UniProtKB/TrEMBL annotation:
GO terms for biological process: 'de novo' IMP biosynthetic process. It comes from Paenibacillus antarcticus. Pfam families: AIRC. It comes from the Bacteria. This is 1-(5-phosphoribosyl)-5-amino-4-imidazole-carboxylate carboxylase. SUPFAM superfamilies: N5-CAIR mutase (phosphoribosylaminoimidazole carboxylase, PurE) (SSF52255). One of its GO terms (molecular function) is hydrolase activity. Residues 90-222 form the PurE domain. InterPro entries: P2CMN_synthase_LarB, PurE_dom. The lineage of its organism: Bacteria, Bacillati, Bacillota, Bacilli, Bacillales.
Length: 224
């Protein structure tokens, strides 16, 4: 198979599944409905599964016309079809500081599930009511990778990072009032966390966190 396929408006990376273990994922924002439909169909034809992030209901409606079994989640804005080629060892815990962070968390959780991870959702455990978080301490520690999603000042991540002996992937969200600067304040706070073992993805990038968590568990599953 050629490494890529020229569709005119894009060069689809057909070799990515063999190189990384997962097909190319489609970023829906900025693409037309026709473009998403064409890319999605070709990925399913070749790999038997596909995932679109930042998708619109119109994109989902078009995809469903050809693939009625494809699912669209309005919260995470994901369109997805197909099962993972294998179930990965371990478990991913996805935490949110607040309910407003759930859309980003669901993008992370559903991405990880599509890639073969078992996911445990632990939502609304922000530090403003820290007993909520501490009551879930043992459950969080059972995870192999922790994704912590928070807006505002992002303090959840530093607390979680000091509670577990596993990798913590921090996701800053754009949730917050003016000085939050649409997530920039949260991003900088997470990047300067005093807790070791914390890595940070981009603002509102639930997909990136879910993908990274799955890649960690893929490494574990391959025994390397």
């Amino acid at each position: 198979m050629n490494e890529f396929e020229d569709l005119g408006f894009c060069k689809l990376d057909m070799g990515r599944n063999e190189r990384t273990g997962h097909p190319e994922v489609v970023f829906g924002m900025g693409k037309t409905v026709d473009q998403v439909d064409t890319i999605f169909s070709r990925l399913v034809e070749v790999h038997g599964r596909a995932l679109v992030t930042r998708a619109t209901p119109e994109m989902a409606e078009r995809v469903n016309a050809t693939y009625p079994e494809a699912e669209y989640d309005e919260v995470s804005r994901l369109i997805y079809l197909g099962k993972p080629t294998r179930n990965l060892l371990g478990k991913v815990a996805v935490l949110t500081a607040g309910t407003s962070d759930i859309p980003v968390a669901e993008e992370a959780a559903r991405t990880a599930e599509w890639m073969g991870c078992e996911v445990d959702r632990i939502y609304d455990v922000g530090v403003a009511g820290i007993e909520r978080l501490l009551s879930q301490k043992e459950r969080i520690r059972e995870a192999s990778v922790v994704i912590a999603v928070a807006g505002m000042e992002g303090a959840l991540v530093s607390v979680v990072g000091g509670l577990v002996r596993r990798p913590v992937i921090a996701v800053p969200t754009s949730v917050g009032y003016g000085a939050n600067l649409q997530g920039i304040t949260t991003l900088l706070a997470m990047m300067t966390s005093c807790a070791a073992g914390v890595t940070v993805v981009n603002i509102d990038n639930g997909f990136g966190a879910g993908f990274q968590a799955a890649m960690i568990l893929q490494l574990v599953s391959e025994g390397i």
